[in-house]
Automatic annotation (TrEMBL):
This is AcrR family transcriptional regulator. The lineage of its organism: Bacteria, Bacillati, Actinomycetota, Actinomycetes, Pseudonocardiales. It comes from Pseudonocardia alni. Residues 37-56 bind DNA. The keyword Protein biosynthesis does not apply. GO terms for molecular function: DNA-binding transcription factor activity; transcription cis-regulatory region binding. The keyword Transcription regulation applies. Residues 14-74 form the HTH tetR-type domain. Keywords: DNA-binding, Transcription, Transcription regulation. Residues 195-216 are annotated as: Disordered. Residues 196-216 have a biased composition (Basic and acidic residues).
């Protein structure tokens, strides 16, 4: 029997909201934005269309919640890897490479969705971000990087390099493999003054094919 108390209703409301956001992530990742509706998301979440309207009101509000959810997922994944790097279980290069391999492999559809959401917001079709994320959308990711580089400006620069590498690689006709990503990541870390502890991080280039040729 459902808890009839105010706390019980709040918990059920929070559970429904989370289910709607996760359903929206699934729908957008699989099918894009073109035919997205609150009713479609509600059906996938096993909720009523009225509940979707109650919690979000508009598609823009729902998509803003999706963007926040995807950012939280990215922070959790990178946070796990950086904790392992700090504990000595992985090198920093190992952690960054694993993150990129996951982002451009199993999580490629999710990453493309994140990029599409950014484009929608930039064009004025995705709502207006509010709160701390509005001032610095990737603040949590930059925070994790700052733990290693010790300076926020350097952390932003390194994040920009990693984001640029990821955005270019995700559109490459032939997805870069782990050795390629590791080599590029090693150069970014070295440029930020961080040691990679990997003598084999940057393979030798041949006269006929450079790393620049392989990743646009």
């Amino acid at each position: 029997m459902a808890d009839p108390t105010p706390d019980g209703r709040r918990r059920r409301g929070a559970d429904t909201r989370r289910a709607l956001v996760r359903a929206a992530v699934d729908v957008v990742t699989a099918h894009g934005f073109d035919r997205l509706t609150l009713r479609q998301v509600a059906d996938r979440a096993g909720a009523s269309a009225a509940s979707a309207t109650y919690h979000f009101g508009t598609l823009d509000a729902l998509l803003e919640a999706v963007a926040v959810e995807l950012e939280h997922d990215a922070v959790a994944r990178l946070g796990e890897l950086t904790r392992r790097a700090r504990s000595g279980d992985l090198t920093l290069l190992d952690a960054c490479t694993a993150y990129l391999v996951d982002l451009l492999g199993p999580r490629r559809p999710v990453f493309l969705t994140m990029l599409e959401l950014r484009v929608r917001v930039a064009r004025g079709h995705g709502g207006t971000a509010t709160g701390p994320a509005a001032a610095e959308p990737d603040a949590a990711l930059v925070d994790l990087i700052q733990d290693h580089v010790g300076n926020r400006e350097r952390a932003r620069e390194l994040f920009a390099g990693v984001f640029g590498l990821s955005a270019l690689a995700v559109f490459a006709p032939v997805p870069p493999g782990e050795p390629e990503l590791r080599a590029r990541m090693a150069r970014l870390l070295a440029g930020a003054g961080l040691t990679t502890h990997d003598d084999h991080a940057v393979p030798q280039e041949t006269p006929h094919e450079t790393q620049e040729d392989r990743i646009p």
